[in-house]
């Protein structure tokens, strides 16, 4: 079994996504988790590669990018402190669906998806509470995408 | 609720209908299709003093009139930020120093500055919604202690569409306000936030029950923004939006700008979301 860093466990517990969750679950989530720092311009995730971690943003800013061969890379959203990056780790085939790049020096907590998934499946109460927090993130991003599609600044 | 907003109701007896001759003093290109035009009276006659949120009719001689918000009035100089979006505004953005144009106004009810005193103020601008809000912002900054927290959220389609870039930097440096700038999409050369303007509202700091919000931008942006502010607990009556609806006569006679029971030129352009909300949900109104 991987070791748990008490410092990391406490940091996970302080993150708004995890705040108030069952301490036993926070402890489980902290197994194998680690803090990571990304310098400005470096990739946090690359489209198509295995999505092995659930990323909690602690400080800094991450840009979600969409690229196509015939046009410049476009940033469609930025994510900041207190927010979470993506759900590719949760849903098969567990591969990133976009590029994520640090806009400035960014500190995150990277939680292991292969530890979280079975823990959530084995403890329905944890799974329910986790999804109760995750679904609003999905809903908010879906709503923002819809608003983006409407094109608020259309002339 | 009309009485506590700035400006006259804009009736035929309040302001002359004939445009007065003004001369272009300077033109600042804000974006490829947007310019800020500063004008001064050509003779001794000038339009009355403007209040934040009011608009004037600018007349490009031989082409036509267009309603344009006042983005500043300093030492008798009127500033208007115009986007090239049609025949008349194309002509207005092509003016050069020394050119003549006609000005009549000011018209309409502006931002409820008095109602905002003593309260937190949230200013949300989308695209070219910032210019009509700038006079309100400047008035607040001139008498900063009379207001509570000041939050500004400004969104545009891309970084190239942001106006008043130098002023944004100046506001960002101030300790007595918080400015968030976001764009809907950007390239890698943009280091700011990306996301629609409503995504920045959760980060805005204000006491909802003691907040007055001024919102200006495209109608759909104002609708979503007002909904988000009400969702944060701001009373709908404390959210004010500036409508733009095809104003022609500007004095409530022609009916071109009718929006349900209101004539936007006469009853607005600034109206309470509490009053407008039911109408903003009516399709094709």
What is this structure's SSE topology?
The complex is a heterodimer of chains A (155) and B (285).
Chain A: H1 6-14, H2 23-29, E1 34-38, E2 43-45, E3 53-59, E4 62-68, E5 71-79, E6 84-85, E7 99-102, E8 106-112, H3 113-122, H4 124-150
Antiparallel strand pairs in A: 1-8, 2-7, 3-6, 3-8, 4-5, 4-7
Helix pairs in contact in A: 3-4
Chain B: E1 20-31, E2 34-41, E3 55-60, E4 64-69, E5 72-74, E6 77-83, H1 87-93, E7 100-107, H2 113-116, E8 120-126, H3 130-142, E9 150-156, H4 165-173, E10 178-183, E11 193-194, E12 211-216, H5 219-231, E13 239-242, E14 258-259, E15 262-263, H6 264-267, E16 270-272, H7 273-280
Parallel strand pairs in B: 8-9, 8-12, 9-10, 10-11, 12-13
Antiparallel strand pairs in B: 1-2, 1-7, 2-6, 3-4, 3-7, 5-6, 13-16, 14-15
Structure description:
The complex is a heterodimer of chains A (155) and B (285). Chain A is built from 4 helices and 8 strands. Chain A has one domain (6-150): Jelly Rolls, CATH 2.60.120.10. Chain A is 34% helix and 28% strand. The longest helix of chain A is centred in the last third of the chain and has 27 residues, at 124-150. Chain A starts with 5 loop residues before the first helix and ends in a 5-residue tail after the last helix. Chain A is globular. Chain B has helices at residues 87-93, 113-116, 130-142, 165-173, 219-231, 264-267, 273-280, and strands at residues 20-31, 34-41, 55-60, 64-69, 72-74, 77-83, 100-107, 120-126, 150-156, 178-183, 193-194, 211-216, 239-242, 258-259, 262-263, 270-272. Chain B has 285 residues and is α/β, with parallel strands linked by helices. Chains A and B meet through strand 4, strand 5 and helix 4 of A and strand 11 and helix 5 of B.
């Amino acid at each position: 079994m991987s070791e748990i860093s008490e410092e990391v466990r406490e940091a996970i517990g302080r993150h708004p996504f995890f705040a108030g969750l069952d301490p036993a679950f926070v402890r489980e989530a902290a197994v194998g988790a680690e803090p990571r720092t990304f310098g400005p311009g470096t990739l946090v995730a690359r489209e198509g590669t295995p999505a092995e971690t659930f990323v909690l943003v602690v400080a800094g800013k991450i840009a979600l990018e969409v690229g196509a061969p015939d046009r410049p890379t476009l940033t469609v959203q930025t994510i900041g402190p207190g927010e979470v990056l993506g759900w590719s780790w949760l849903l098969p085939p567990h591969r990133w669906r976009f590029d994520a790049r640090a806009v400035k020096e960014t500190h995150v907590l990277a939680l292991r998806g292969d530890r979280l998934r079975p823990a959530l499946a084995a403890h329905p109460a944890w799974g329910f509470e986790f999804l109760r927090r995750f679904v609003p993130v999905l809903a908010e991003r879906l709503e923002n995408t819809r608003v983006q599609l409407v094109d608020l600044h259309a002339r | 609720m009309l009485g506590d907003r700035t400006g006259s109701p804009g009736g035929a007896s309040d302001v002359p209908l004939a445009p007065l001759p003004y001369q272009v003093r300077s033109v600042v290109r804000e974006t490829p299709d947007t310019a800020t035009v500063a004008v001064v009276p050509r003779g001794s006659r000038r339009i009355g003093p403007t209040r934040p949120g009011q608009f004037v009719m600018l007349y490009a001689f031989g082409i036509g009139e267009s309603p344009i918000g006042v983005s500043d009035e300093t030492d008798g100089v009127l500033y208007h930020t115009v986007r090239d979006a049609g025949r008349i505004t194309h002509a207005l953005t092509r003016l050069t120093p020394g050119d003549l144009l006609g000005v009549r106004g000011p018209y309409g009810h502006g931002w409820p500055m008095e109602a905002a005193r003593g309260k937190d103020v949230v200013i949300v601008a989308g695209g070219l919604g910032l210019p009509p809000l700038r006079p309100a912002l400047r008035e607040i900054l001139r008498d900063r202690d009379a207001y509570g927290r000041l939050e500004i959220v400004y969104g545009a389609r891309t970084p190239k569409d942001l106006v008043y870039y130098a002023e944004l930097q100046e506001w960002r440096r101030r300790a007595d306000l918080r400015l968030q700038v976001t764009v809907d999409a950007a390239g890698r050369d943009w280091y700011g936030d990306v996301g629609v303007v409503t995504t920045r509202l959760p980060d805005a700091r204000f006491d909802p029950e003691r907040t007055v919000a001024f919102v200006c931008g495209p109608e759909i942006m104002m609708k979503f923004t007002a909904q988000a502010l009400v969702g944060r607990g701001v009373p709908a009556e404390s959210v004010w939006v500036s409508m733009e609806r095809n104003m022609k006569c500007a004095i409530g006679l022609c009916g071109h700008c009718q929006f349900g029971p209101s004539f936007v030129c006469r009853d607005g352009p600034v109206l309470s979301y509490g009053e407008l909300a039911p109408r903003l949900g009516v399709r094709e109104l």
